[in-house]
Design the sequence.
């Protein structure tokens, strides 16, 4: 019986997960990415992509948890912060979503999805934000 090293197993599942995302098969992507993390825990790119797949599956609590771990491991992970923002937005955590989008944009100013989501979130809560003197357009 041939032993496959954990890195190779994790890599195979990661690549299969990414291919599933490309095909729009988010449940399969989630399974592969979770298997990848099982073989090699704490991989930032795997956590970030798992969170993205879970957002597509509307598993916002799980997505926020995985995205949060990814930014705890790497505070410079702009895509991780974007995923924290999206998941937080759908969970109704308005201020947390704006803060996460802001962080994503600080790290990667042209991150279109963060800008779009921040704009949508900002429009929805303009009066709340204005009452706190939060500048929507920075």
Sequence:
């Amino acid at each position: 019986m041939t032993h496959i090293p954990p890195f190779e197993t994790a890599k195979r599942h990661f690549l299969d997960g990414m291919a599933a995302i490309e095909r729009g098969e988010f449940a399969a992507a989630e399974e592969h990415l979770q298997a990848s993390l099982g073989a090699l825990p704490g991989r930032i790119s795997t956590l970030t992509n798992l969170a993205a797949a879970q957002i597509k599956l509307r598993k916002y609590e799980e997505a926020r948890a995985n995205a949060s771990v990814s930014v705890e491991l790497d505070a410079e992970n702009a895509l991780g912060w974007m995923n924290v923002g999206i998941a937080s937005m759908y969970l109704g955590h308005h201020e947390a979503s704006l803060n996460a989008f802001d962080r994503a944009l600080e790290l990667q100013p042209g991150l279109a999805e963060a800008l779009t989501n921040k704009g949508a979130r900002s429009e929805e809560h303009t009066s709340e934000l204005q009452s706190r003197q939060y500048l929507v357009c920075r």
